[in-house]
Amino acid sequence: MPLLPLYGHTALLDRFRDALSRQSLPGSLLLQGPRGIGKQQVALWLGRSLLCENPDRSPCGECKSCRMSSALQHPDLHWFFPRPRLKDSDPDLAAVRGDNVDGIMERLESSGVYEAPGGDEGIFVATVRAIVQTAIMSPAMGRRKVFVVGDADRMVAQEGADQAANAFLKLLEEPPADTTIILTSSESGALLPTIRSRVVSVRVAPLSEQEVRAFLADPVVSAHLDVGPRTVDELVALASGAPGRLIGRDSWQAALTQARRLLDAAAAPDRGTRLRVALGQGASGARGKFSDTLDALTVLLHERSRSAAAKGFDSEAVGSARAIEFVERAKELASGNVNPQLVTASLLRELAPLVK
Ligand SMILES: [Zn+2]
């Protein structure tokens, strides 16, 4: 099964085309933006473009390189992303490669429609070592090699892994002339500062409503969506520009439920309720989940503001709109190394007068 076509991001792709034609694309890049907007798809598109044999119209989709890279079979297009930890505590390069191929096959089987990695999945030190080892080799087929590292914030710092980590940092800082490294992250605040300072960051924007509709109408996508009784309009509103979030283990649904709980707590008259709900947010290890909750809270507040304005409840509309600003600030804090309970407690205090 081929990967889905890439939906949206036309302006960004134009920028990249321009950089490619001027050969000014940086050697290491970080694509950052919300989960579920297609950052890894954009990164793979860049990989195909870099490897294409017709640079004036890359990716041409016709040359041998393009045919191989679009089937993810190009030996110089390397795609890594979080995987469950291997049983062998010190796997060799072959074991890591084998597992990586398994992961890619799984994603191909669903045409690249996959859910966010689970909490037990990570990019472990053996994988980092494999990236570094492969990067110093010559390309197998073409003139270049490209590494796409999805959810790079899931790189796991491990004891005794300093050597691999340092080698990776050196690779990011000075990739070989024939190598491009593209990291993606929806939690870029969770990336090690030592990584962030060595890559050129590119912001990837959410999709437009029209693009979300096109994505949802793709038969491959609808086969992977548990739509239930919801209408397309409801799904479009739920997706809020990031339709990939609707896929899989209902994590977005869970985030919306939790966000509703937070809103109710903010509107509760007593401080006790707010604190209890904040403490229920969990302390750490659930950073991804927490930022999903905050994204969901933004979506709910937008809805609230819109429907209040439609009914002529102006102060409620303004209150909800102002509340969004506080949520956005909380998101910034949450993407750093801040305790979700503390962020939630102060956010609920700020929201209380706005959402009563
Ligand atoms: Zn081509």
Distance between the termini: 51 Å
* CATH homology superfamily of the largest domain: P-loop containing nucleotide triphosphate hydrolases
Cofactors and ligands present? zinc ion
Note poorly predicted spans.
Answer: none
Q: Topology, please?
A:
Blueprint lengths: L9 H12 L6 E5 L6 H13 L12 H7 L6 E4 L2 E2 L8 H17 L11 E2 L2 H11 L9 E5 L12 H12 L5 E7 L7 H4 L3 E4 L5 H9 L1 H5 L8 H8 L11 H17 L3 H9 L7 H25 L2 H22 L4 H16 L1
Parallel strand pairs: 1-6, 1-7, 2-5, 5-6
Antiparallel strand pairs: 3-4
The site of zinc ion has 10 residues, from helix 3.
3D structure, described in words:
The chain is α/β, with parallel strands linked by helices. The protein has two domains: 10-203, Rossmann fold; 250-355, Four Helix Bundle (Hemerythrin (Met), subunit A). Helices cover 53% and strands 8% of the residues. The chain has 15 helices and seven strands. The protein has helices at 10-21, 39-51, 64-70, 93-109, 125-135, 162-173, 193-196, 209-217, 219-223, 232-239, 251-267, 271-279, 287-311, 314-335, 340-355; strands spanning 28-32, 77-80, 83-84, 121-122, 145-149, 179-185, 200-203. The strands form two sheets. Strands 2-5-6-1-7 form a five-stranded parallel sheet, with helices on both faces. Strands 3-4 form a two-stranded antiparallel ribbon. The longest helix has 25 residues, at 287-311. The radius of gyration is 21 Å and the shape is globular. It starts with 9 loop residues before the first helix and ends with a helix.
